[in-house]
Amino acid sequence: MPNPLPPDSSPLPAGARLTPARRTVLAHLRAASAALSHPELLAALPQLDKVTLYRTLDWLVAQGLVHRLIGEDRVGRFHAAAADSAADAHFQCLRCGRTLCLTASEPAPKLPPGFRVERVEIVVRGYCPDCS
Length: 132
Ligand SMILES: [Zn+2]
Ligand SMILES: [Zn+2]
What we know:
By secondary structure, this protein is of the alpha+beta class.
């Protein structure tokens, strides 16, 4: 489902600057219906070389504008972050690969004494409305 927001309309973190490459990658991910891997992005955006694409994605992920999620096939794929979403909670469709940012995070599962939680990642897998 294409994101109706034009690439310029969402607020950027302070000090963040959208170079043409960053803008191109972000706009492409926002328009994409499913999360995309490095090779898929490289094929879709032939004007960017491999190194530029890697650096651009690293930057977008660091700014929280893009999330990277590892699929069941162990391939990392990128999607545009939804507004106010956590980077650590997602739904992933097992058929079409549609990836949805979720906001609500459950508390961490109980750990044995002496263990400390740093980070909880939740991936809910199932079927989106188009695939159910
Ligand atoms: Zn689906
Ligand atoms: Zn996300």
